[in-house]
Amino acid sequence: xxxxxxxxxLKRICxxxxxxxxxxxxxxxxxxxxxxxxxxxxxxxxSMGKLYGLLALPDLAPDGVCPVTVFSxxxxxxxxxxxxxxxxxxxxxxxxxxxxxDFNGSGKSQGEFVDMTxxxxxxxxxxxxxxxxxxxxxxxxxxxxxxxxxxxxGMAAGKCGASxxxxxxxxxxxxxxRDDALRGDTQGTRYDPWHLDQPxxxxxxxxxxxxxxxxxAMNLPIYETTAKYSGPVLIVNGMADQVVPYTYAQRYKDVLxxxxxxxxxxxxxxxxxxxxxxxKLVADWLIKNII
Length: 291
Description:
The chain contains 9 helices and 12 strands. By secondary structure, the protein is α/β, with parallel strands linked by helices. It has 2 domains: 38 residues; 252 residues, Alpha/Beta hydrolase fold, catalytic domain (Rossmann fold).
């Protein structure tokens, strides 16, 4: 009976937990490898220099054209956000091309993170859309964004309009960033938004938040600009999101009445509690609304 003591059970639970983590990591790596086998690197002119991206095309139809979906990562992120590769694999299999890229100052793209702002990320994404549409293989273009990338995708869609953007997916879209700037607290970094006496403010992990980021965020018309988009929209947020409360997703639904809102109980900001559900949800929705 000693083997079934509280200590013994705790060890078994820890072992099971570690095995699950190892299995998830192996699956994620396998998905990433499958996506990378089809992808090829591209460089696109952005707002602060060259943007690095990975383009994946499916087996093209006789006319040589396919719809393309563009993926935008979040604040302090990069194009290797954990949901992108498995979604890309499903889209490619369904005949949809994909492009994921790093915003200026992130990943392998040019520029410095301290100079990044939401407006210049919007410029980046609009440049990426224009590049895609200029390619001979490009049919319609759809956008998917996570966190700040969701804000950027929504605002870019509003600026471009439904004539240029076929469909839009907002994942944990961080519309809270404007309120955070007005409160003087961005991801735990505190400042007086009305008296910004420094060129930048230190963030965790060595990042620096530029003064221009705060100044532009305070006046950002997030919902007003996104509301101009009239195409199909999927809005997803976790109910347990501690970064972007799900009420911000509900407001997206208010300004995008044609949108489909899905609030997931227990899900976090990075959407890592049940990624397989999110992957299938997003891929199925995109395929339905693109093809």
